[in-house]
Amino acid sequence: GAGVSQSPRYKVAKRGQDVALRCDPISGHVSLFWYQQALGQGPEFLTYFQNEAQLDKSGLPSDRFFAERPEGSVSTLKIQRTQQEDSAVYLCASSLEGEGLQETQYFGPGTRLLVL
Amino acid sequence: RKEVEQDPGPFNVPEGATVAFNCTYSNSASQSFFWYRQDCRKEPKLLMSVYSSGNEDGRFTAQLNRASQYISLLIRDSKLSDSATYLCVVREDTNAGKSTFGDGTTLTVKP
Fold first, then answer.
1. Distance (Å) from the C-alpha of residue A107 to the closest C-alpha of chain B?
2. Closest alpha carbon to B89 in B21, B46, B35
3. Most B CBs within 10 Å, among A24, A34, A37, to test the B interface
4. What is the rounded CA–CA span in Å between residue B25 and residue B10?
5. What secondary structure letter does DSSP report for B94?
6. Quick count: other Cβ atoms within 10 Å of Cβ A35?
7. What is the pLDDT of residues A54-74, one digit of tens each?
8. How confident is the model at residue B96 (pLDDT cuts 50, 70, 90)?
9. In what order do the strands lie in the sheet with A75-79?
10. N or C: which end of chain A has fewer CB within 10 A?
């Protein structure tokens, strides 16, 4: 079956430009997660949705980062006025319920963002 | 200090070797533990969950020591296809949605 998909796969932005990254979770998955992975590091949690409700946004690094999931399926991560330190791979993951401690999170292929 | 720490490696081992990775976590509220595998320029994929009693899946064995806040992964009879980065992941009881990842340990298995 179809996994988590993300678009675009690659994005080059000029410093100061706004970008929008899209995530399509696995159909029927209630929970959706965004992570940021810098080169040579593990993924860092950004935010988490259960259906359309954003339950945790503690990992968003600044108010330039905004995420939404208005209909409880597709999610968009928006970064305003991009800076060079925003360059990273942005990973989206989904899980069936999200509340179980042993729930598996399935990752998408990521969007590789480069800010020049 | 990071919440989840791993030896970055790299570990370079011959085919057939046994190799062990360690991971320590600082948050005593952590309740669930996982090992993920990430191939170069690919997304992380779940390798196995780690249970209190320890668990095995084929050539892979995971152990948890709650008292020492330490997790391990043992790979026996290494294959070339085991070459990847292995990420240690923990989740807290109070926020099951959020996963905290280590920076990973890189393994290269050579012929």
1. 6
2. B35
3. A37
4. 20
5. S
6. 26
7. 999 999 999 999 999 999 999
8. low
9. A5-7, A19-24, A75-79, A65-68
10. N
